[in-house]
Amino acid sequence: MAPKRPKGAGAFPKAVESPAPARPDPDALYAALDLGTNSCRMLIAQPKGSGFHVVDSFSKSVQLGAGLERTGRLSRSSMARTIQALRICQQKLKRNKVKRMRLVATEACRRAKNSRDFIRQVKRETGLTLEIIQPEEEARLAVISCAPLVSTKTEQLLVVDIGGGSTELVWIDISSVPRRDRPAAIMRLHNGFHTVESPFPAAKVVDWISVPLGVATLRDQFNDVEDDSARFALMSWFFEENLADFAPYKDEQARERFQIVGTSGTVTTVAASHLGLKRYDRTKVDGLRMTSDQIDKVIRGYLELGPLGRRRDPRIGDDRQALIMSGSAILQALLRCWPTDRLSVADRGLREGLLYAQMSADGVLEDGPF
Predict the structure, then answer these.
(1) What's the pLDDT score for residue 9?
(2) What percentage of residues in the chain have a pLDDT greater than 90?
């Protein structure tokens, strides 16, 4: 005899709806947009403790600086691509009703003869007001974004931000700051690199420099060199030549008290390659520490792959295969000058710095560990 079917066995299960997540209060939201030589990137976030929670984001390669080295101007096609991306950013800002924001442009707009016309066109077509910031502020924002990654054992810190059109280096002495206060001392640099009266032990900026060579501009300088290895060597040598005016250039550091924090697509890509990731994972990359030897091994691997092999590598791809080599040339030059056992990889940068600076100025961040 067949078993009886339980009552209601054929009925569809009753749907249980999970409550929709509460929309964040627009008054608590902040936005930061970074328009660089290669990319347009934006974050919308709300303060959370001593940091923030990202609500929405945007990132797209727009190649605003394409052809800038040759013509000194932003091309029509580059501006059109960028305005398309900015329209999407404007929609996200409107949808989230963001009132507090900073929307900044960097090296490509600093250098282009027609950048003011472009800024006006952006305002006319998207309603967004872009602000061209100077190299010192760009460097300062990169520094404070990396504050949570600073080791309490570090006494001498070099923060490196490899961009598309420029590279910012900031050397900071925190040896006089009590160990547990060192990350917070870095954060307080959002007020400026010059020493100000403070009741707290201060981080001292020994020197900073903005080198007008990033992954795109350095690549364009040596585009006519056909041999892959020769081009790489020339790029690395040329970048090092441009560091001659940087005060700590020849100083050798004790490795155990010296830390480099690198923020850029180059550094995160090198880290992903070192870890052997098939798919990029920010949680595994951000904050990772690498030695000079580990980084050198990855870069030698890129050279052995050649242009075709790099295109096929899932961590690099067709769009970035040339840029990763100019970025690696910059990184190799830095490690030749200052070898370290502790290069911290930062998947963060200008946008995060803009958010920290706005929230800190408004007093909405809690004191405490990051």
Answers:
(1) 43
(2) 61
Write b or e for each residue in 120-138: b if 16 or more Cβ atoms lie within 10 A of its Cβ, otherwise e. ebbeeebebebebbebbbb
Low pLDDT (below 70) residues in the chain: 1-26, 194-200, 249-254, 367-370
pLDDT of 253:
63
Residues contacting residue 140 through CB under 8 Å, at least 6 positions apart: 170, 189, 190, 192, 193, 353
Can you give the pLDDT at residue 30?
A: 97
State both tokens at 138.
């760009």
Rounded Cα gap, residues 353 and 357, in angstroms: 6
Query: What are the chain's domains?
Result: 26-133 (3.30.420.40), 136-350 (3.30.420.150)
Dig out the tokens for 102 from the structure. 């900073």
- Does an H or E element contain 300, and which? helix 292-312
Long-range pairs for 9-13 at CB < 8 Å and ≥24 separation?
Answer: none
Task: Specify the DSSP element, H or E, that contains 65.
Answer: none
Residue 64, CA distances (Å) to 45, 203, 222, 327, 348 in order? 25, 35, 19, 18, 21
